[in-house]
């Protein structure tokens, strides 16, 4: 419901913490997210980048990990925290996990040395480019396999600053090509770019502009092609 969220979030107002709320006119289920909405989020962040010390993005859980990954790569030279969060149960539900997730996200967004995109969920702060949704039933809905949490939230917040990224280059954000077609390719032993090439040659369908492969760094490997439908 438009206008409901700003009223609910006033409970977090306190001395020393000032925040503004930007709400998009058209709210959608996150499962319907497209690159157009990614650009809306990017535009909202970039246009306000120099006015705030940190940002919290409230997002549906179905595609939150995808958005976190996009922001992590698109916000080149990021030198402030951008923290995504959401809830398995809506804020209006009496057992909603959203309140604790929001409290943790706001605290993380106030950390001046956190220069990356992260997800705050179920008392963990996860690197945005490594997080994934792992469960739809439990409150522990997200994890980052092979990447330790950036913080754990208990009675006190335990900041794992030795794991935090350093600022990387000048602030030079990107926008998403909304016409770009992407396909994810899971690499297994004995398969690689040849498999992607075979799919482009023999698939009989509109080939994606790029195949993205899993990588352990900020920058994924990609194989690009100009192939079209045969």
From TrEMBL:
Pfam families: Asparaginase (PF00710). Residues 22-162 form the L-asparaginase N-terminal domain. Keywords: Hydrolase. It comes from the Bacteria. InterPro entries: Asp/glu_Ase-like_sf, Asparaginase/glutaminase-like, Asparaginase/glutaminase_AS2, L-asparaginase_N, L-asparaginase_N_sf. GO terms for molecular function: asparaginase activity. PROSITE patterns: ASN_GLN_ASE_2 (PS00917), ASN_GLN_ASE_3 (PS51732). The active site is at residue 61. Its EC number is 3.5.1.1. The keyword Ribosomal protein does not apply. It is an enzyme of class 3 (hydrolase). PANTHER family: 60 KDA LYSOPHOSPHOLIPASE (PTHR11707:SF28), L-ASPARAGINASE (PTHR11707). This is L-asparaginase 1. The gene is ansA_1.
